[in-house]
## 1
Amino acid sequence: MALRCGIVGLPNVGKSTIFNALTASSVPAENYPFCTIEPHTGIVPLPDDRLEKLTKIFKPEKVTPATIEFTDIAGLVRGASKGEGLGNQFLGQIRQVAVIIHVIRCFEDDNVTHVEGNVDPVRDAELIETELLLADMETLEKSVYRLTKLAKKEKSAQKELDVILRLQAHCNSGNMARTFEAEEDDLPAIRRLFLLTRKPILYVANVDEDEITHDKRNPHVQALFDFAKKENNLAIRLCGKIEQEIAVLDDEGKAMFLDEFNLPEPGLNKLIHAGFRLLELETYFTGGPIEVRAWTIKQGATAPEAAGEIHTDFQRGFIKAEVIKYDDLIRLGSEKNVKDAGLAQLQGKEYIVQDGDCIYFHFNV
């Protein structure tokens, strides 16, 4: 399961700069709107210190981290839902991602123009969300029209129409689709619409060098964090300029740079971990002399579901899972020591995989 994130925002807020930092790519970051016309995509490894420690134990030929895909989507503007600034094309690209990363400018700089005239993070956040909501309302209107005609011929379509009509009324009242309360049976019909406002949002406050080195948030940043909390989303601070400088350094250089700015970790790590929290994802590991690998699953996944991430045959022919806790493995130093201590567990189909579990699956097809 790959985490796919779409980076959005108004023009000139630092989207491409942050994308460059995250993916160490070379998307142009110019001081004018729409310099990024086609979406740029970068796949990066999930930062996880546990992989390095597991590698020392298993000494594998190959190490494969989990990956995250970032898509840099060109700047949205007011009126995007009506096609302004190539808005329809950009909104279509957002439909394909699992998490929206909304970069918002939270710094003052007279040399960098702001498409809305001044820095106001909450206004900018609401502007983009309004465009997403307007696009969803259009999608819902088309769905209602289609289902109304279909319900006259097929009675089974009436139930779906009822659900979509309730959702339409919810969104027409100015509410995001993610706040709509639906029964489990109603979710397939809603998911088929790929509504933009059902996606969780991670707000990235793009700040200057002075702001990122202080624990206290400036008024712009605090306002955005308060807005994110109200919307039941997450917010983090990044300095796009610093992150881009860090991205091109080797490990030693990164450590020195982070120490100089008193930063505990690169912004990439912070962003990925926040994305994981939003999507309720976690990681388990498989290990041996051939390969140590990290796998991404939804929190609450059963052992067979986790096995299915490796191959559908593993899930279909699942027999049992041999589970070793990461902490036990690191503390005791080898699989043999864990087993000799009686800490390896055989788990069945009902076992809920925990973050950090090291698993060997037994299956038969």
## 2
Amino acid sequence: MAGMRVNVISDVHGNTQGLRTACDGADALICLGDLVLFLDYADHSRGIFPDLFGVEYADRIVELRTARRFDEARDLGRELWSRLDIDPAAAIEGAVRRQYAEMFAALPTPTYATYGNVDIPTLWPEYARPGTTVLDGERVELGGRVFGFVGGGLRTPMRTPYEISDEEYAAKVEALGEVDVLCSHIPPDVPELTYDTVPRRFERGSRALLEAIRRTKPRYALFGHVHQPLARRMRIGSTECVNVGHFAATGRPWALEW
């Protein structure tokens, strides 16, 4: 198939309005995860956390996490949850379900999606409609090119919902084999791609992704996760590595044409 274009997005974080036009001008949409908005670090009034506890406590949580005082942030979270007359897991799941219902309904057809580290994979089958294909450690051919997908993130002190061990993540990467386009939520483990310039810290990248890029030489490696990266684009050998952008903030997809 000649003249194909796919639009690629990541880190949607509640931007339902943007999803409705994310596939404009393209033959398909690729979504690299993080649909859920738990707490907007740019606008602390948005997300599940401020809805439950208010902006003042959202400000405090962001302050602690940005300072990498994760134990204190968890202690504050436990204290706040203890004040509510509701099971925390039930409250979060209910809020995530409401967000998923809106966002999956807004996804265009066709969409090829994988999970981010803040997503809850067990809920996706209930909301993914015909026309949305969910892939994790799996491949799909689009316009004569093979796309491989690896969802989720690696374990961190943040303890977001879909973090897995390095070994489990590496097994999914290995299962893909050789692909033309390697799609993941997190970047390969390269300092320029994993450093976030606003909180001034390194996010976790994958050594397995980096090794696969060096070994199998895909044309592209596409990812998100790092909202304000030191480098949005760089080459590793013959592979063009691209952070497709923080869709929650920009509402703009990254386009791949061939």
